[in-house]
């Protein structure tokens, strides 16, 4: 193996923004993405927000000659939107759906219905085992008042744990997707610190594309310019992360992003820019092999910061649960009062002016609806509380283990 040339892997990652009936020029853009993938001949194409299985089937049919292997990950009500096209055989797949993913009553956001998840594919290329992960985390709709930050931190923690526990038999780990986090956000620092994944943008030898590697840029015609006012250059939320395990090292030879409209076209591929990385995989020199058991003190601070965000979310979830429980009790009391009034009329205790039947029925219906809705939301927020409590406990144990390792060094 030492005499073999390094393996070069070209990876394409894109959030396709393909929501049926809602995304602009969806069919034209899906066709354009398919044309580009077939012409460029990447080794792997990691796609997100392919919400329609029909779009996936069209891509699969168009790309069958160049990418004979593909997989579509299904979850949630409308699907995870995750799919992968590969030039190499896919040996195995697995999907993990995140335990927290927004709120079902936030219909205008819709993340809960998507069943956000991480998909794993195991691929063997030239004798090297690749564990390829593709994911899409909960969106950030308001950076100043981000109600979903605790959920996204939980997702980042679960993603890190999932990679850590499922990649033990891999030679190379590769993660691509829309993480919906800026490079300095606590979730990204937690993910990278816990897994040891390297950022292709930070490590690349050659970069070409949008300034600072941004993947949401004001120049894109599908972008709401007002949302990017605090970030005139744009933001970077789409990533290709990697690391080598066992006998192999990985480096990013080159990285590029698209910069608005597709070549020769008047429209871009998506509201996101694509990220394209050329990775070089070669055998590790035994003399330079580093120990994987080293613990960086900064990781303790990152896990502490993430745990704080989870606690904030936990307190908010407990307040929501209490409010819904109180509303359910009030609605139940109102129904009991109405039942007592109805019974009194049956036994002949009517007042000289009877209670209007229509108003009585309407009030009963309203109280019943409020009771049922409050009970459903109480159960939902109880589940949210349990998940946040569980994650906070996991982080507490992880912190204790990290501190024990640091004290023994």
Automatic annotation (TrEMBL):
> What cofactor does this protein call for?
Mg(2+)
- Its Enzyme Commission number(s) read 3.1.4.12
Q: Look up the record and name the pathway of this protein.
A: Lipid metabolism; sphingolipid metabolism; Sphingolipid metabolism
Q: Where in the cell is it found?
A: Membrane
Q: Which EC class is the enzyme in?
A: hydrolase
Q: Which reaction is recorded as catalysed by this protein?
A: a sphingosylphosphocholine + H2O = a sphingoid base + phosphocholine + H(+); 1-O-hexadecyl-sn-glycero-3-phosphocholine + H2O = 1-O-hexadecyl-sn-glycerol + phosphocholine + H(+); an N-(acyl)-sphingosylphosphocholine + H2O = an N-acyl-sphingoid base + phosphocholine + H(+); 1-O-octadecyl-sn-glycero-3-phosphocholine + H2O = 1-O-octadecyl-sn-glycerol + phosphocholine + H(+)
Mode of membrane association: Multi-pass membrane protein
Ranges for domain Endonuclease/exonuclease/phosphatase = 27-272
Residues in a coiled coil are none
Any transmembrane segments, and where?
A: 328-348, 360-380
Q: Which GO terms describe its biological process?
A: sphingomyelin catabolic process
Q: Which UniProt keywords apply?
A: Hydrolase, Lipid metabolism, Magnesium, Membrane, Metal-binding, Sphingolipid metabolism, Transmembrane, Transmembrane helix
- In Gene Ontology terms, what is one molecular function of this protein? metal ion binding
Its cellular-component GO annotations read: membrane
Pfam families tied to this protein: Exo_endo_phos (PF03372)
Similarity field: Belongs to the neutral sphingomyelinase family.
Q: Which PANTHER family does the UniProt record give?
A: PHOSPHODIESTERASE, PUTATIVE-RELATED (PTHR16320:SF24), SPHINGOMYELINASE FAMILY MEMBER (PTHR16320)
This chain belongs to which protein, by name? Answer: Sphingomyelin phosphodiesterase 2
